[in-house]
Automatic annotation (TrEMBL):
Biased composition (Gly residues): 74-83
Name assigned to this protein: ADIPO protein
Annotated region (Disordered), positions in chain: 44-93
Location (main, coarse): secreted
Species whose genome carries this gene: Steatornis caripensis (Oilbird)
Database matches in InterPro entries: C1q_dom, Collagen, Collagen/C1q_domain, Tumour_necrosis_fac-like_dom
């Protein structure tokens, strides 16, 4: 190729390597980027927060601090439950005797009792037997003239009789207020002396009467007494009715 066109082409070929070397010296790509700066894209968005890291190991205990000031006293708490009783302690020494107290009023003792014996033989039937031998009748609640015990203190009484039987049979009954309460019968044996007895507890009110009498006809009145054989009748108050007194 000759003429001006050829000259121009040769000039360009000579100048191009020089320009390329100069450009390579002035602009160098950042080795940390994937492309040269003249080929880099727009900046990206910030990434998401990463996961929390693991807890670190506990550090060593520090030195003990100084004692702080005492705080204010708090309110009183609720009472606790009662605990289990403890063991019994040792026995103490006897104490000194106290002063003598004043004399109190004596309690009234209710008394009512009698014990009597027979003096006559073969008492009459169907009437009170009159026991005229007095062993005890301090309160005079038994009337020897009638053969009856009269209740002056209401309460519970005990009555008993022990009779010698001789010559004929004996059938007796203990009466309270005109009504027979108990019966005793003994069949007499010839050439023999028998005994007949009975006892009972009765509740009496003031004014009640108690007595013994032969029950039936005269052939049942073999109650006997002499200087060596007794037939007795007795009774006494066990305890009074306190609600009445």
């Amino acid at each position: 190729m000759r003429g001006p066109a050829g000259f121009l082409l040769c000039s360009l070929l000579l100048v191009a390597p020089h320009c390329t070397e100069v450009a390579a010296q002035e602009v160098q790509p950042d080795p940390k980027t994937p492309c040269a700066n003249w080929m880099g894209g727009a900046p990206g968005y910030p990434g998401h927060n990463g996961l929390p890291g693991r807890d670190g190991k506990d550090g060593k205990d520090g030195l003990k601090g100084e004692k702080g000031e005492e705080g204010m006293q708090g309110p009183k708490g609720d009472g606790g439950e009662i605990g289990v009783p403890g063991r019994e302690g040792p026995r103490g020494f006897p104490g000194y005797a106290g002063q003598k107290g004043e004399k109190g009023e004596g309690a009234f003792v209710y008394r009512s009792a009698f014990s009597v014996g027979l003096t006559e033989r073969a008492p009459h039937p169907n009437v009170p037997i009159r026991f005229s031998k007095i062993f005890y009748n301090e309160q005079s609640h038994y009337d020897a003239s009638t053969g009856k015990f009269l209740c002056s203190i209401p309460g519970t009484y005990y009555f008993a009789y022990h009779l010698t039987v001789y010559l004929t049979d004996v059938k007796v009954s203990l009466y309270k207020k005109d009504k027979a309460v108990i019966f005793t019968y003994d069949q007499f044996q010839q050439n023999n002396v028998d005994q007949a007895s009975g006892s009972v507890l009765l509740h009496l009110s003031t004014g009640d009467e108690v007595w013994l009498q032969v029950y039936g006809e005269g052939d049942n009145n073999g109650i006997y007494a002499d200087n060596v054989n007794d037939s007795t009748f007795m009774g006494f108050l066990l305890y009074p009715d306190l609600d009445v007194h």
